[in-house]
């Protein structure tokens, strides 16, 4: 993971809540652990491209709506 990962802006929690999903529900639909969703939301973990695409598909939004650089 590059140094720029700390600059990644993350709107996952907001989009998840707008979709009416808990971390657990999102994790089941995106086929990942709840701990992974929590780590992504807290900026501890940057998801792979595949996981970011799965999450965006589950939340019916674009990857760019969830993650972006400043």
Helicity, as a percent range: 40-55%
**Global outline:** globular
At CATH level 2, the architecture is Orthogonal Bundle
Mean pLDDT score: 92
Distance between the termini: 17 Å
Order of helices and strands: EHHHHHE
- Total strands: 2
CATH class: Mainly Alpha
Textual characterization of the structure:
The chain is mainly alpha-helical and 70 residues long. The chain has one domain: lambda repressor-like DNA-binding domains (434 Repressor (Amino-terminal Domain), Orthogonal Bundle). It is 53% helix and 6% strand. The protein has five helices and two strands, in the order βαααααβ. It has a two-stranded antiparallel ribbon with strand order 1-2. The longest helix has 10 residues, at 49-58. It is globular and about 30 Å long. The two termini are 17 Å apart. The mean pLDDT is 92.
Task: Provide keyphrases for this structure.
70 residues; mainly alpha; 434 Repressor (Amino-terminal Domain); two-stranded antiparallel ribbon; 5 helices
Question: What order do the helices and strands come in, and which of them pair?
Answer:
Blueprint: E1 9-10, H1 12-18, H2 23-30, H3 34-41, H4 49-58, H5 63-66, E2 67-68
Antiparallel strand pairs: 1-2
Helix pairs in contact: 2-3
Kindly summarize this structure in a few lines.
The chain is mainly alpha-helical and 70 residues long. The protein is 53% helix and 6% strand. 14% of the residues are buried.
């Amino acid at each position: 993971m590059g140094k720029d990962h700390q600059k990644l802006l993350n709107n996952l929690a907001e989009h998840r809540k707008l979709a009416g999903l808990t971390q657990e529900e999102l994790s089941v639909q995106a086929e990942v652990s709840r701990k992974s969703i929590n780590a992504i939301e807290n900026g501890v973990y940057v998801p792979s491209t595949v996981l970011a695409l799965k999450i965006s598909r589950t939340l019916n939004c674009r990857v760019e709506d969830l993650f972006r650089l400043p």
